Give the backbone structure.
Amino acid sequence: NIFRWSILLAASFAGVGVAGAVSWNRPAWPYVTAFSFMISIILLMTTVLPGIKALQISRQAGHFMAHFERHGYKLAAAGYIEPSLVFYSGGKIKLCSGASQLCQVAKFSPDGRTPPVRVTKYCVLVDRRILKKLQAQRLQFWIQSQYRGIKVAKGRSTRLTILTNVAPALSGVVRSASKK
């Protein structure tokens, strides 16, 4: 589907060139070229870019986290703090500055120990750096999903992991759970 839109976009840019060549050295030349280029950019922004999944990492992760929030989990994030993530997750997300603050908020149990009976259930989004710190502390958590994409603000690739501090008991809440 994105290939088809890309072909249309390429044809649109070719049209910009043709329109510029036809109207060259005429009074309307700058206006014709600018108008046709503007149409091409609008086509790019409305058809091609929204179809690129790697640019929608906040939307994918936010919707997945919102599903957990509807099932009684509190939400937190560390290492990947984007306003779009807050928006797509429903706005009720605790943003943590690092792994230590995240551990204070989400109360992960040490590996091999049963979590306390009255622990608050958290669904947490972390980047690769925070995930390594949690693993180094040998904390118990369950990976629910992972996303690879582009962090648009920085223009770099990133890998995000959604995990919980308790094993999900509700069927249908988790698509793929694996204890870490």
